[in-house]
Records
---
Amino acid sequence: MQLPNSLKTPAWFQTLQFFNNPTGFLEKVARQYPDIFSGRFFAGQPCVFVQHPQAVEQFFHNERQKFGLCDNKSVQALVGKYALTSLIGEEHKRQRQFLTPPFHGERMRSYGQLICDLTAQTLSQQPLHKPFSAYGMMKNISLQVMLKVVFGLCSGERYQQLKHLLPLMLDIFASPLFSTLVFFPFLQQDLGAWSPWGKFLRLRQQIDDLIYAEIASRRARTDPERTDILSLLMAAKDQEGQSMTDQELRDQLMTLLLAGHETTIAGMTWGLYWAHQKPEVGEKLRQELDTLGDSPEAMGIFKLPYLTAVCNECLRYYHPGLMIFPRVVKEPVELLGHLLEPGIRVIACTYLIHHREDIYPQHKEFRPERFLERKYSSYEFLPFGGGLRRCIGEALSFFEMKLVLATIMSRYQLSLEEIQPVGAKFRGFTLGPANGVKMVLTQRRESRKSLQIGVFS
């Protein structure tokens, strides 16, 4: 089968280059093939990679007719067969109908104060003038947000157990070794409790037991006043009046945890890094935040133009996902002058799209102003994917990212521990800062004791 612009190196060497230096490898390939190329660095399977907005537009517009979701057994093994990322057709549409209302932007308002309070509480426990990992701190904040906003747990035995077990499982995902287990299913072997996959399976079972116990407890004692996402999902009905099953609920919770958690952490860490690596960015952020006074509303923070631009530029520069889940060609289709036959896998490479010089001049410069100067189409800037499978947790992720950065930048003074630029590497199946970004908390701003979120109408 003839594929467009095939890389000439052996599949094993492509794989080695990709996992060792993903961004450098992709950029090197793009210099030779700027719009479309074919590679074999995902378990040796041939894939066509597109990084031109025209191809991405065609890709999304023909998602139902000409492109289908690949049978991704690795994803199912991680999050379950009812996870939104694994479903197609009417079942995918049904699950999105369940999930969309709890993640609507208006719903996010009720979580604003909680996110700010959790951030402030975490920073208050960090000693002054002692180096810490910004990535680790953001992971701690995001985990607490996940437990309280998504799972609806604030105290009790299940809360404590999940608070202990979830980081252990996420740490497995963050290791470079687990990257190979995700992309190469044949390595997913249970060789005992000390093997990576065996350890994951045992942790997952303990977490599953806690999730199912919490679901059973909620079903036994319904509380219409609860606003956490699990409770909202349990109360939702489809067009036939059916509720989600226990397994459907569990699989969606695992999807939110594993697919959305790491990407949000990476985005927030990069935000903190760039705000201090480029002091003028941090100063502009603080000046903008100061215009809201001491009691800004959550949506007021969310709508701040420069804060939004900084978050967008973070997600552009080092997109955590690198690329969108692969699709498979269902019927012959032409992309950028190349005929693709049924069965070929196609991947839109987000990272390369976000680093096209013709769209983002001086793309290697972190410059939030570009998002104030121009509005990019959904085929040029796609941090949460696009089309029928756009990330369902986009609103919560972006909301959390903005409020956490706003709380830290308005209340604390930090500095970078290292002056060397920080690069990106794989942390599990997402792209994150290579060294976790080492920082030091130098001052707490007593003059502004709390970032209070105003009352909403």
---
Amino acid sequence: MSESPSPHAARDAVVLVNLGTPDAPTPKAVRRYLAEFLHDHRVVALTRWLWCPILHFVILPFRSPRVARLYAGVWMEDGSPLAVHTARLTNAVQTEMPDAEVVYAMRYGNPSLRGALTRLRDAGHVRVQVLPLYPQYSTTTTASVGDVVEEVFGATGIARMRDDYHLDPDWVEAVAGSIRAHWDTHGRGERLLFSFHGIPQRLADAGDPYPMQCRASVDAIVQALGLAPDEAMLTFQSRFGREPWLQPYTDETLKALGGAGIRTIDVVCPGFAVDCLETLEEIALQNAEIFHAHGGQDLRYIPCLNDAPAHARALAALTRRDLDARA
């Protein structure tokens, strides 16, 4: 019986792309990461002559030490949660796809997306399939990954990118299954709250499909759970600056729920493929404290899918379909 080919000799390559993370929970490392992230015109569209002085002389000096302390509170033995869980997820997808080389990269920070794509291009892979680990498309995230793919591969046709998988049935079932498993262990809270990373409202007004895809994801997951639509809530977290972002805001919603006498609430964040600062610190710690301060008793955070077998199978299946469509 012939052995499976080595992934590193495979004609196909798969790149799982996450947002990024600092290399260490230190102000210097966080500043370097935030500088790259916030320099992207997809993230901040202000003209550079206006934005760069604000970024380098106001935001980074004051924000980096504070963010570093937050990272230190959730840092794992092997590194940043986002990096550790993304690496483990990549290994799980590789197991599901032994005939392809499966790697991961970060849009900002290390391992760099540009470096990973360049290596795969130079290695002579016939097909490179790029999967941003953002189930819902946004111009602020997915489109930025596409910018780098186009920069490295141009019009060669070797690399293609999936824009979203917010209604993929295997992914929807994986999320629903994780919620059921949580309920089997902890019982059901009085409310199920879905919290997604927000974007400025002006981007949605300009046509960014992200909020509509978030709603569609919630509706599909709620249907898979057999819940009535009013048994779940959709909110948005992680707003930055003074302009309006997508609403309702997660923290304000938790304040209202606690004040209305809700004592237990389950919170899930299916816009994040793996756990990270925004889930482990912002939701499970900060927002839990907000809920408690306003009368709530127990915010039960439901972890991201991370490297769960159902998650790896779902991503491998949809990537395999994308590759098959190119045959």
---
Amino acid sequence: MRISTRQFQQTSINGILERQNALSRTQEQMATGKRILSPADDPVAATRIHSFKESIGILQQYQSNADQVRNRLGSEEGILKGVVDSIQRVRELAVAGANGALSDVGRQSISEEVYTRLEALIGMANTMDANGEYIFGGNRGKTPPFVKSADVVVYNGDDGQRRLQIGPDFFVDDGDPGSDVFMRIKNGNRVFATEYNPANTGTATIDQGRVDNIMAYTRHDYTISFPAAGQVLVTDDTLGTAVSGFPQTYTPGEEIVFDGVAVTLAGDPVVGADTFSVKPSSSQDLFATVKRLADALGQPSGLASEETKAKMEITRSIAELDNALDHILNVSASVGSRLNSVEGQVFINEDTVLNLQEVMSGLEDLDYAEAVGKLNRQMVGMQAAQQVYLKVQGLSLFEFMR
């Protein structure tokens, strides 16, 4: 078999180029620190590495979501702490204002501070987060959620809660709508609420009452009246009939019990005119509670009946401030629980990412000791191929015909 000079040269050059490519690839591997530079290097490992990178990317997005939730909930937690402090201060002012020895000037001063606290509470409820969204606006983060309209605070947000995924099967609410936090607080004793008739002209009072027997409680509306001197009548407004056992003898300061309800009446009512109501507890917003207290504290001395109503308002406000305080503390506890859950999931995500990176590193990272040995062998082979090519290229038959 004859090999032409051209064929020999082409074959030799191709061999040198192949060795040069292999040497260049090894040098590139050493420069990048990666064993796999393209899927062709190890298709199976390349597929696994791609899958790991996708998983790490998803986990990093979870971490980004967790950061957002953590920031929002952290802001809410701080605001709720301020709200709790304000409620506690308002309650202290209410207790101080209930002192019968206090002058009109003293009560007016307390009333003004309560109004100031009310404005502060509205301001806290309209707090924005770092992204310029209102924390308590629900899904309407760009609109101030609480707006004063005349003497009433109106909620302009919605009931929405944004849920962000921070783990493979873990979703967390990144906040609470203002309707749940500030607007839906049970009045009265949280089962039923007592109320005086604004038209009352006597000095009779009613307390917040208690549940005597929850199994007997009907959730009906009742009216308490005084049909004759020394008598008290309880009418079931839902049924339109008098409650069994009534009318009874009215003894100021003694408790009357009916249908699982127990209330205490005191003072002197106007017979045939003054009435009180007992109804199931309903939702009342925090701002209305504080405003009613401020209004009652600002009421100047005058008719005994009006002073009696103001005292009942103050007493009622103290009870409802306690309800509001419990409610806000429950919301705050929920926020704290979610923050703890987020922290736990962040640690899990970080640990998972680290494990995936370690496995991926084992697949794609270069073994430098092995690569150096390979590089040396390739360089020696390259030099040998070049030297052989040079020597063989110089051979000719004429060298043997001298």
